[in-house]
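Here's what a typical entry looks like (LuxR family transcriptional regulator):
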Amino acid sequence: MLLEREGPLKTLLATAASAVDGRGGIVLLEGEAGIGKTSLLQEFAERAGVGCRVLWGWCEALFTPRPLGPLQDMAQALDPEVAALLDQGAAPERLFPALLSALQHARGTTVLVFEDVHWADNATLDLIRYLGRRISLLRAMLVLSARSDELVADHPLTHIRGDLPAASLARISLKSLSPQAVTRLAEQSGRAGADLYQITGGNPFFVSELLASSEAEPGHVPDSIRDAVWSRLSRLTGGERDVLEMMSIEPGSVEPWLIRALLGAEADAVADRCVARGLLRRDAQGALTFRHELARQATLERLSPSLQRSLHAKVEAAIAGLPAAQASAQLARRVHHAAAADNGARVLELAPQAAAQAAHLGAHREAAAHLATALRYVAEAPPAEAAQLYESWAYEAGLALQVYDTIIEAGHRAIQLWHELGRPDKVSLNLRSLSRLHWRRGEGEQAEHFANEAVREVESLPPGPELAMAYSTRSQLHMLHYRFDEAIEWGLRAIALADRLGEVETRVHALNNVGTAQLFDDRPGGRERMEESLALALEHGFHDHAARAYTNYAEYAVVSKDFALAERLLSDGIVFAARNDLDSPAQYLLGRQAQLRMEQGRFRDAETIAQGVMKLERLPVVMHLPALTVLGRVRVRLGEPDGPALLQQALEEGLPTGELQRIVPVRMALTEAAWLAEDRAAGHEQLTALAAMDLANFRPSDLGELAVWWRRCAMEEPLPAPTTRVPWRRAVELGGDPLAAAKEWERLGLPYEAALALMQVRGAEAATALASAVTRLEALEARPAAMLARKLAQRLGIAGRLPKMRRGPYTAARQHPLGLTQHEQQVLALIAEGKSNKEVARTLSRSPRTVEHQVSAVLGKFNAANRMEVLLRLRGEPWLLSTAGAP
């Protein structure tokens, strides 16, 4: 009997009704243990209607959760292809789209219930994020139940919750029963309600257990729930207790075959009696679980440690006796029982297999956890096995966690053991991994040291894959530090060796390094290598390499002012990253898109995009630095007071990396801020710091900008760098023809740069040039530069020939970041609500043909193949919708 659950039940049914109409949704059901989440969901399933297929799956409190546990539970009932892919251990990039297709083509509405997601593995969390971002266009509903007392601030589910689209998410927080409801339940059992509420606090499970315990002792209220459960157990037959005790060591459901294997054929009838007594429940597949997790835990507490270990060992042995495919599918469960049985040899055998299975599914946190379990028994492992455990754990933990010192130490331990075993190839691999870990921590010197050591370790051996990748890693680090000669040299070595060995992935990685170095140093061949790297990455499904190609190539296009190429790469790259749920690369590309809009003089658009990126949580420093730098620079140009502070923050975050690409643009921006404020000392401080760097490694574009600011800020000493590598558009200003430079900037589509160049014109053309500069700057809302231009005209005695100063606030000539018209923005807003073309036409009072054309235009400007891809981009770029006009 459900009491005081009408509101939550109504929310669940309303979400289901919306899903039936083709607008899917998510419900997150939270509450403490025993609050009645499962009972509510069972009532919902009964009332959902014949058009809804309700499928159930569970996350379990294993030492390390099963990868995709809920999906495994429901796969057979959901779709044969999905089940087959799960059995094959298919990677998420194959499995998730297959699941999406199954939901799209299902005859009715599908309700997926994932219970206890506070215990979910990483792969399940990735699946929740994947489905959640797409569900609004499906006839499907995703229900997630979780214990609120388990969801601490850093719990992974709290981060996933923030990734789910707010428009599709309903959150239900179940409360305890009121004193009135408890009294009503108590009276139905002939009990007094006041004491019962005081003891239980209104927790439905506590209430029901205490009421059940009163059957033997009317009027007596036990002191604790454990006592209530133990009291019930004491009244059972020996066979019933055996079933419950055996089941108590299994955190999830227990299959009938397992009960029979451990307790004999007669156990089926005994289990049925436990179900009839309300102690157990049976699901649609016949598997048994305790009616509540708290009852299982209380039963488990009755067992001595030796009996628990014995039962765990028997369960693991029984699962091992299954056919190979079934036993392999339950590796995580077997590791749990082997570890609980304290069987080190079995853990050392099974945990690496389970880790490999989890990593293949993208569940790197669970892979690391399996390996950590194995490391508890590392003293029992032979040296080679121990070395592999340290190596694998350092790699998986480095992917899933922050780079803690313990991960670095594990890498060193692996190197030591491999060195003692005479395996230079493995030593090199681990040195390369250490290099990457130190780079992620912003420790450039250590990263380079270990990259060099990785090469030295294997270069005297017959050439192999490790040497090829070590060459490419060294090339990458040189490229990141703008040592382009060395980057190209080592990258070409890597390519040559990779081709000899047939190592396509290494070739893709090295082509990117060499191509990026050639592009940024204005050398021929860079575009061709980047195009090949990107094409090969896409062809072979190397998603991370493809994202890296998009980011490096797009950055070059923005920096080189090839805006047509930049628009194409950014649009394609952002869509690719969104389609494949690559959040960090997507936000990095958006930072570059903000930079592009800034260069184009679309300051408000740049500000909107950069602010959107900075609001995102958990973004690595290197991924948000482009957006932070743009935000600070745009705010300076718009005259906002927080601009310099934002740039100072970017500088503080960029300096520890030691990479010029993270530092030089910020110091340039701070120089511009000082010039606009006529703060000579601050400008000289930044320029002096820039000149103290290795100018020979500056990109030509950076060197040209430095030379121009050096001239504009009237530095007394000559710039200690040759100007032969300065791009022509900068060189003409340095050569005394700023008017020609301004015309070139205008031709390229950089109105702000054109205006700054016009401010350098002197002589007879100064008045005309300054007037043109002021007109441009005021149109851009660039108040500080416009005011500086007027001050300059005043000093030159030509202020009267400038246009009158604008009065009142500036009016932003904002356009949509993707160029949508006002009518298309209205259509976009309705697409985001899940409206069909007919509904859009009816809402906007437009003809179906007109709406069809406008929807097509929206898809084209989003570079999207369908509405779902539009929604995915809106999830990562919500500002694209916030600027849309309301109908």
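The beta strands are 25-31, 52-58, 109-115, 140-147, 169-173, 280-282, 288-290.

More examples are in the samples folder.
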